[in-house]
Request: fold
Amino acid sequence: MNGFFRHIILFLAILIILAIGIDIWISSHLRKSKSYSAGEYAVWNDIFADRIHHDILIYGSSRAWVHFSPYIIDSVTKLSTYNMGLDGQSFEVQYLRHVKIFKRHIPKIVIFSLDVFSLERDTDIYNVEQFLPYMPDYDIWKYTHRNKGFTMFDYWLPAIRYAGRRKEISLAISQIDSAQTKLYRNKGYKPIDAYWSKQVEENLQKKKERYVVIDSTLKMLFERCVAECIAKQVRVYFVYSPEHILGQKHIVNRDSILTIYSQIAKKYNVRFYDFSSEAMCLSTKYFYNASHLNSVGSELFSKKLADSLALTF
Reply:
């Protein structure tokens, strides 16, 4: 009987070692992808490898990573800048990046790129594939487990989360030699060379007005993040980047959401730059949809913002 149990233990030990080896191999090669998962791997790699020691960090959603050019802000302010924007994520996942960064580096400035959806609770984790190569990790579990996307086994057992993920496994294999592939995002930034189309116009006409439900826990987490930055003597700025006027009209409670941000800004004595009333918000020339600037609009906005920031130094 003892021999039987020894064989079981030996079998399980071999299975665990094999699973760990497979996990490490897939994860290490998947992380090499420079474009998959909206280019998020490049940013996560910089975070986990402790390569982000920049003076200015930009927090936010997709409106952050396509709107704020670190290169233009660098050139005007003479301060190194990194764009931490996350595609399609609520503030909880944005806060995950904040936690990871502040364990390694305290910047001089944090710019919060605001939008109407960041304080709304998601049910699913958008772009869940971005977390696969970095697990198990306590912080990832802490700030994503409330949403659908992973099971507890996925979070903590080796290789389990890759079961059935043929696309990611195939990508990991193909990334063995990826030296010639260009980065999708540079310093977290991706200018979008796209323009307003008739399809965008038609979609807006069909789009129904929406009431955004603010999650109280996310609101508190946002305020906590601001307080943590200030406690570390980090200069904080709130920025609502340009949004086309047609997009603004679709959010019924947009004004009340901006009031929440204004109240927090006032409480912590934070400068709040609202660019949603700029003349460029009336022109389709600078947008590829109602919420997002194209590369032309991004460069124009980044220069306006950088000039404003430079006046406060």
Summary: The domain at 2-310 is CATH 3.40.50.1110 (Rossmann fold). The chain is about 45% helix and 5% strand. Residues 2-30 form the longest helix (29 residues).
